[in-house]
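Gem-associated protein 2: structure, please.
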Amino acid sequence: MSSNKYIYKATRSNDDDAETLVSPCFHVGPEVQLKEVPTTGEEYLLKVIKERQNYSTITKCNKDYSKFSKNQSCFIEETKPAKAPDKLKPTIEWQNIQVADFSDVRMYLSRIQTKKTLWPSDLKKISVEHDSLNGWKQFFNTNEPTLTCVLGLKHTLLDRGLEILTEILEEVKPGFTVDYKTGQWIYAFLACTRQPLLSDTISILRNLARKCAEIRSCINPEEEDAPFAVTPLNIFICLVARYFRQYDLAD
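Here you go.
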């Protein structure tokens, strides 16, 4: 193959002064005619060459997007989770037990989901307005987190329900913890969360863990009932971090 360099000049009217220095990989003889529908390999190659000459080597953006670049980043900055007081921090042995118990629940649900003959006969059809906070609150208050309620929920409803439960945790006052029924719902939704996780689901899980860590950090470790108050919070943080593999949030 010849090592000679050839200069091809672009034929576009708005790029007449642009020149490119290239080495042709293939040579097309002068006897080859340009056809609208190529019938041979050389005719096809000639058509590609001609079409390529209509485009500049470097594509430039003619619009100014600099005004949109302020306060923007290709990364999402997350706040670091609040640290647990030493007296309330769970041991790794305790966390392993929670993950093992949760895995058993997930396996049980998985067996039921794969065999609809095992589904409860009184399975409820859930009708909740997707973005209605009051509608979700009413649903959580008037129903119990049983298989008949959660088993048939679609992936999008599971994600949205878990997101609403995290918003409900915003109402927990400093020094208090999650109420028992809300905790049951969170555990039930975590147990039904589909894997592999979608990016939106991961974000929701991480928000839940950070919120639980924030609530836990406001509980006085010297209070007599402090170990009981932080237990559900420790469980949710543990499951998000160690079962769903968001290890940077782990205690």
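Notes: The mean pLDDT is 82.
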